[in-house]
Amino acid sequence: MSGMTERPFYTWEGDVLVLNILGSPNAKKDAIGKVKGHQLCVSVKAVPRGGKATDYMVRFLAEEFGVSVRDIEVVTGRTNVNKVLRITSPKRLPGVIGQQKLF
To answer: pLDDT-derived band of residue 36, with 50, 70 and 90 as boundaries?
Structure first.
């Protein structure tokens, strides 16, 4: 009996925040949205062409988390809406993360 628990949309590995993201390009505005399942919805205005929306999202998230672009690694999903990002030593946490309970 493994007791399936809902996977969180983020985990900590030391000082590295690992985020599961559902990206939404071509949005009206850049925004960190709600949690959907085990992913955090992030909308960006950029067009999804050759990874450009992902690059744009990384720049947007770097500002939101108070880190430099080089502190964010795109582990998977550079050209896909489903992404895994690693953010080293975030200085700020958006409210949606601060409200979540870690197990």
So the answer is: very high
